[in-house]
Amino acid sequence: MRVVHYLNQFFAGIGGEEAAGAPPEVRDGAHGPGRLLQQLLGPEAQVAVTLVCGDNYAAENLEQLTAWALDRVREAQADLFVAGPCFEAGRYGVAAGALCAAVQQHLGIPAVTGMAEENPGVDLYRKDLYIVDSGTNVTAMRDAVGRMASLALRLLAGEEVGPPSEAGYHPRGLIRDAFVEETAAQRLVRMVYAKATGEKYESELRGAVFPKVPAPPPVIDLGRAKVAIVTDGGVVPKGNPDRIQGNAAQNWGAYSIAGVDDLRAEDYEITHGGYDRRYVEEDPDRMVPVDVMRELERQGVVGKVHDQFISTSGLANPIANSRRLGREIAKKLKEDEVDAVILVSA
Amino acid sequence: MRLTLFVHPITDLRLGGETRIEGAALTVGEEELRGALLQDGRLESVSFEVVRPGEHARIGGVFDVIEPRAKQPGDGYDFPGAISPMALAGRGTTHVLRGMTVAVLGEPSGSVIEMAGPWAEWCPFSALHHLVVIPRPRPDLPRHMALNARKQAGLRAAAYLARASLGLPPADTEMYESDGPSQPRVEGVPRVAYIAQVHSRQFVAEVDEQIVYGHNTTGMVPVVLHPNEWLDGAVLAPNAGLNVLTYHYQNHPILTELYRWQEEGRVALVGTIATMAGGDNFDRDLNCTLAAELTKWALGADAAVLTKTGGGAPHADMGYTAKLLEDMGVKTAVMVGPPNLSPERTVESSTLFNYPEVDAIVFNSGGAYFELPAARVERVVAPSPEAAETFFGLEKLAASRVTGVTSQQGAQRLRALVY
After folding, report:
1. Domains of chain A, first to last
2. Predicted interface score ipTM higher than 0.85
């Protein structure tokens, strides 16, 4: 079993913060914690090469470093890629996560790393990778590397990895259903009692961390702006020509309202199962307010109403999918030189 | 207020000439019951079937499941406000036929009770006897009236059957007693409240839909109810179901669990709030704020558990109510789960609220993507022969279709584990 191991300047023994600009280098065999890794992976394992890079260099040149690392891993004909463990070191964790994700995606071999919960690399990459919880204490190196090795061996053998609490990795946020002995009622009362009496409790769901999307600058002069209506309420032309699904819609449609002042009930239908549709079926302007927008256009409050409205269904729409739909819609609206959007949600 | 249940176990159920209970055997006087239910002129006909545990059978098209219960005369009325005059529920004695249900069928419903096969182990109703009631409202009736007639037929049947036990000595007695918010605080014993949505305004309640003491909840704001009122017929499952069953109001998993903890001296169950998920932002903010405020100031709760009815908007409302409570110093735990339809199966897609303070969450599976093989059945009981056809040849069933497996009332044991 051939392994490629990635270390930062500190764990490779080059130096501390002052050496964070160290450029990437390849070293033969195992170095630093890599020796422990090799030992714990078992007699079949060999760390063929160790890739070393300073944390600052990595942070500032992540794309090039990644391409470089992929080449090294290919050359080494590695079966496994391991990075870190990084503990709390944030730049190290982000680089390790990026490299592991790239190796996994482009080379199709298992990649494992380890970080403390607070390491920014965890939230960025937990969905994509197995990130062992190393804790913050570097003296727990043996334990962290041990868990990384066990996990790696399972991945290589194609075995089930097991739940986060057992295998010691940060929850990836993937859901699997299973029967448990206790009813939800029993678990709920026990949990609130613990919380109310100051005892420890473990939530069955911990909130996701969503990356912040910076707001664009405001529209300076609405009276000169082109405004488009976008809805996730599933209002589509009768017949649903683009076959937009009412649930977890995969696509969106742009529909002409050129010369239209008011949407007529007979021209539209609703593809969305999550709200009482009767009122929008009676008058689609209730979800796609063309009538009001036209008035505002006539009054000069709004410069121009875009001659298409965009529609999809937001019901039970996975976030990754919604992100894609949003990006695609934004791209089209930018091409159409739209300045602002009224987003009407069901 | 104290509610005493006189429990009469039923281990044998059959149709026959005269309604009577002998030991643990209930004979249902078919013509008598039919006559009683057809007093409601909105029904054209009604049919009955008996389904027993262990049968290779499937009951399809489940509209509601109701436990036969009848008030001791003088202690109130059966399902008050709905099929009886208004009276405070939750006091005195109620007779219960335990070990059986009235299962009301009607279209359209894809819900099934699996009496055999892999789902039987997890379906809470496979171990019980069922008197299946299939009311057939006149076809010319407006839909809401037909649904009301259907619901009432089930409730009347349940009360009618339980009345056969009046005067018989119970095999068992259960007592539910709570002095409510006026009970003095005991050091180390948290005062706990339960806040439950009973309807979601994603769906406009029918004018004659009967949910809280027969009221359809339109125009309602959150109300304080004594725990016993839920257990004694004050609250009924809505027409749309929404993973809520009348049986699980009568045998409420969360209320009975809280009462158990109270028996052990660990919590004080100070009361409950019935609320609704909002139909718009204003409605939502009003209901969430009042529910929280009543919990803190009317009930004097230290902690609260919350459940919802319906889908995403109720989920978000429940989270917001919990956040408001946490802001007021009340510790909360919330139950999320069905009908999470997101096919992506990630935490990210299941998180419809994200308040750091609302950090005690029970996570049930949405149930739509967990399947087990359907039983090979010899018998299907369904609202019509056409419906029976569709229920016969099923190869597998998702958890969300098996009655009682996914539950907004706390009965669920199918958990969503995060990997």
Report:
1. 2-167 (3.40.50.2300), 222-344 (no CATH)
2. yes
